[in-house]
Design a protein that fits this description.
7-stranded parallel beta sheet
């Protein structure tokens, strides 16, 4: 339906983002799918009902103007934004002499600045609908991991979610930090045994979103049973 609520997902081309898009579609949301990889987004949009139900907006979250255009395109097509899932991000190997400085820079810009830009870009639209903001943090955003700059970026996202909750507190907008442990996604070069699946995270997202309007699930920390810490 033309007045169905709208669910915007960054990092929607695979993994947690794509799984959440499928679950949100089943729940009756119109989708806005954003990521850098347009071909994957278009394939997912076709699966979820095409242009009338799933809008594809290729977006580099590290570029402020791109995020402004993402929101403008959403409002032009669908007229509203009810849920925003700031999910775009990637990791790096542990060790402060691992990886390249260039990869570090890209990771920090995507994981931290990208999430902040998404909050800023969608704030007015979410306030208008008294909507819901969710951010993908991590177990690594609750405790430091040895030699992990990625862990530091997710600590930033955890703090950002609480900062956003405080700023939104008198607007009716809800804020949730999603904090997965090991997930079987393209994040890992070697897929971990016994890990969570993207659908597990998507169900957690939808649990938060489907609570009564006066209930704000601020944090969801979930691990596979086999993960000790």
């Amino acid at each position: 339906m033309a007045d169905d609520p709208v669910f915007l997902i960054t990092g929607a081309s695979s993994g947690i983002g794509a799984a959440t898009a499928r679950h949100a579609s089943q729940a009756g949301y119109r989708l806005v799918l954003t990521a850098r990889r347009e071909a994957e987004l278009r394939a997912l949009a076709g699966e979820l009902g095409g242009d009338q139900r799933a809008l594809v907006l290729p977006t580099d979250v590290t570029e402020w103007e791109a995020q402004e255009a993402m929101v403008a395109g959403t409002l032009e097509a669908f007229g509203r934004i009810d849920v925003v899932f700031a999910n775009a991000g990637f990791g790096a190997g542990r060790g402060f002499k691992k990886e390249t400085p260039e990869l570090w820079r890209a990771m920090v810009l995507t994981n931290v600045l990208g999430a902040a830009y998404t909050i800023r870009a969608t704030m007015d639209a979410l306030t208008e609908t008294q909507g819901h903001l969710l951010l993908t943090s991590s177990v690594a955003g609750r405790r430091a991991l040895e030699g992990s700059l990625y862990s530091a970026t997710k600590h930033a996202v955890t703090a950002m979610a609480e900062s956003a909750r405080l700023e939104f507190s008198d607007t009716g907008v809800r804020v949730t930090s999603i904090e997965p442990g090991m997930v079987d996604t393209p994040f890992f070069d070697n897929r971990p045994d016994g890990a969570l699946h993207p659908d597990d995270i998507a169900r957690a997202v939808m649990y938060a979103v489907t609570q009564p309007a006066h209930v704000d699930i601020n944090e969801i920390l979930l691990r596979p049973v086999a993960q000790p810490s």
